[in-house]
Each structure stands twice: as structure tokens, then as C-alpha cells.
Amino acid sequence: MPSCDIFCTVIDNFGNIGISWRLTRQLTAEHDWQIRLWVDKLQAFSHLCPTINPQTGRQYHRQTMGQRTAA
């Protein structure tokens, strides 16, 4: 399984983290990648992903994959 790290510096609250979060979810869902998303402002990220606790430094979020069928 491919994996990578994505680093996000939040500048304008939702633009930077929105793109990073969408890319992370897309690579996970469509290509089965394992992604580590590094975010410098968890408060902004918590608005997009409510399971994030901005008071905790290191967190894990697992996106479950739906059943795939072979074409």
C-alpha cells in the first residue's frame, strides 16, 4: 500500500486545509493510500473534521473504505 505525508500550513482557515483534507480523503478512497496529514492549526481543521480535538497534539483518524467490486 503506498503511503505519504502531506504537510499543511493553514493561512486562510479553510482554503489550505480544505484542499489538503480533500486530497487526503481522495487518495485514501480512490487509490488505497495511507496518508499522514500534518496540520499546524488544528482549530481550523476541526471545523472540517469534527472528530478532531484541537486540544490534543497527535491524533489518528481512520477513514473506512466501502466494499469494492471488481469490474
Compute the CA-based radius of gyration: 13 Å
Average pLDDT, to the nearest integer? Answer: 83
Number of helices: 2
Provide the low-confidence segments as ranges: 65-71
Give the helix proportion (percent range): 25-40%
Strand order of the largest sheet: 1-2
Structural shape: globular
Number of strands: 2
- Give the structural class: alpha+beta
| Distance between the ends | 20 Å
Biggest sheet: strands, sense, closure? 2 strands, parallel
* Beta-strand fraction estimate: 15-25%
Please trace the helix and strand order, writing H or E for each element. Answer: EHEH
Oligomer: single chain
What would a concise description of this structure say?
With 71 residues, the protein is an alpha+beta fold. It has helices spanning 15-31, 42-48, and strands at 3-8, 34-39. It has a two-stranded parallel sheet with strand order 1-2.
